[in-house]
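Dear colleagues,

As part of the handover before I leave the project, I'm documenting each prediction I ran so the next person doesn't have to rerun anything. This entry is a single chain, and its sequence is reproduced below.
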Amino acid sequence: MYGTTILLSESTYREVGGCFVTRPIDHLLLRGRHQPTQIYEVLGEKGYRLTPAEAYFLEGLMAYRRHDFAQASELFREGAPSDRPCQIFLARCLHLLEQPPRADWDGVWIWDDTY
């Protein structure tokens, strides 16, 4: 889905996240679950340096979580050529700019294979 190699659930991240460089990817409500979960991508071992696309994603994710979809889309667009999570979130932002969520939206995404 995300074009990543290794994803961690929130509980696994708490167990081993300190051993690796990771980035948060999404806050999802998974099928069959009632509580959303944060998922993380393992980028590398300690000392790994973020690529420019990964850095754009992290900045874009902060704007996305503030509901600043215009700024987020600009940042995701910068990383999109080489980063699948940027591509996914760019599509989401464009959708959310056209159809804004409720003001109290918590950012949890229910994956339905649309993006």
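The radius of gyration is 14 Å. The longest helix spans residues 84-98.

All the best with the project,
I.
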